[in-house]
Amino acid sequence: MCEFTGKCANIIQSWKPAVLGLLDSLPYDEEVVVWGRRWIVKTSTLGERHGYGIYACEDIIVEDSTSCRREGPTLFPYGGPIYKRRHWNMILRQHPEWKTFALEMDTFAGSTRRHSDVRVIDGDPIRSGNIAGFINSTVGTWPKRRANCEWVFVEGPPPAPYGQTYHEDHCMVLATRMIRSGDELFTHYEWI
After folding, report:
1. d(Cα 75, Cα 109) in Å, to the nearest integer?
2. d(CA 104, CA 148)
3. Is 57 exposed, middle or buried (0-12, 13-18, 19+ CB in 10 A)?
4. H, E, C per residue of 33-86
5. Closest CA to 76 of 174, 150, 162
6. H/E run at residue 5
7. Which of helix, strand or coil describes residue 184?
8. From CA 75, how far away is CA 36, in angstroms rounded?
9. Which candidate, 136, 153, 142, places its Cα nearest to that of 187?
């Protein structure tokens, strides 16, 4: 764990992954159940540069009518402590390595927040139990991979029993096409 000084020491939030139905720690090469589905974290098919990936251990069916996205089956939340952009920037000045798994919540369509008030989720899988942190990007892959899931901003708390006291909105991972048992999850995102 990193040591923080000054204002950052007061900004860092404690986080309990169980609040969103996530595991405290994610074992590698071993099946786990998250949100009623079986998953395994193991070396990515993209190679050593990408580290680990998350694989389905069962088929996940996406109905033909949901091919227009944002309607596929819910897989699990993108979880972690949420910071305002200005606080996140302070954290990164002390520990730049933290940016790797950050997801900006308010960059989705319709957001009217000022840049400094945009919320950032610290989704590091080691610090926060965020299984979605193991989803790799299709950008620049060869041979080209197709995304089979996406991150979606959702207004309102996650479904019961998860996150009811957490906060007013969240990000979820949804399937966008059929995922077969053994498939690695991919989504489309740019590296910063």
Report:
1. 22
2. 20
3. middle
4. EECCEEEEEEECCCCHHHCEEEEECCCECCCHHHCCCCCCCEEEECCCCEEEHH
5. 174
6. none
7. strand
8. 9
9. 136
How far apart are alpha carbons 81 and 101 in whole angstroms?
12
How many whole angstroms separate alpha carbon 61 and alpha carbon 108? 26
Q: Which two tokens stand for residue 108?
A: 């989705």
Residue 78's identity, in one-letter code, is Y
Cα distance between residue 124 and residue 127, in whole Å: 5
pLDDT of residue 170: 81
pLDDT 10s digits, 104-153 = 877 665 556 666 678 888 888 887 888 988 998 888 777 888 899 998 88
Note the pTM of the prediction, 2 decimals: 0.84
Q: How many CB atoms lie within 10 A of CB 155?
A: 8
C-beta of residue 53 within 8 angstroms of C-beta of residue 185: yes
The tokens for 189 are 């995102």
DSSP state of 183: P
173 touches 132 (CB < 8 A):
yes
* Distance from C-alpha of 108 to C-alpha of 69, rounded to nearest angstrom: 14
**Alpha-carbon gap, residue 47 to 148, rounded angstroms:** 19
Rg over alpha carbons for the chain, rounded to the nearest Å, is 16
